[in-house]
């Protein structure tokens, strides 16, 4: 029961951490996208966020810009063959960063999944064990007096209750954050496509 109580506390700690994390994440995402879309060039947008870090969209953008600068010499013309290589390399660099950021977003989800799936069975095991001890107590005392066995049975049932208290929030929070992670993954993927569109226009001026 102590382990189940700790699992419940852990679940709520993850809830608070993830809630604040996603609130900050979405707020900074809106700020970055506004900066990106209001910039006249990719270089201008890069200069504005160059010193920022620890945000998925910014990290994806910076990886694309760094690969662009490595692949295309400033002032150089982007002939068709080079252009294709630049676009492929920047997309690959951004997708690698996107995959890493997606994995980072999922931190703690495995804990919620484990608590949600295991806690009811742990609680049920505690209940079965407690009821077994209650029946053993009945046999030892050779009495069916409810006052003798009630405390043991009540404690056994409490194990199931605590298991459900730990499991139900874990399942709810897992589903909630899974949806948010999925939504943000779509947002990152959409940004990669948006960057490629802007990059294509950028390279048009380099031809």
UniProtKB/TrEMBL annotation:
Residue spans crossing the bilayer: 6-25, 111-136, 156-174
InterPro entries according to UniProt: ExbB/TolQ_transport (IPR050790), MotA_ExbB_proton_chnl (IPR002898), TonB_ExbB_1 (IPR014164)
Origin superkingdom: Bacteria
Cellular component GO terms, alphabetical: plasma membrane
Stretches of the chain forming a coiled coil according to its record: none
Subunit structure: The accessory proteins ExbB and ExbD seem to form a complex with TonB.
Stated family: Belongs to the exbB/tolQ family.
Protein name, per record: Biopolymer transport protein ExbB
Organism from which the protein derives: Roseiterribacter gracilis
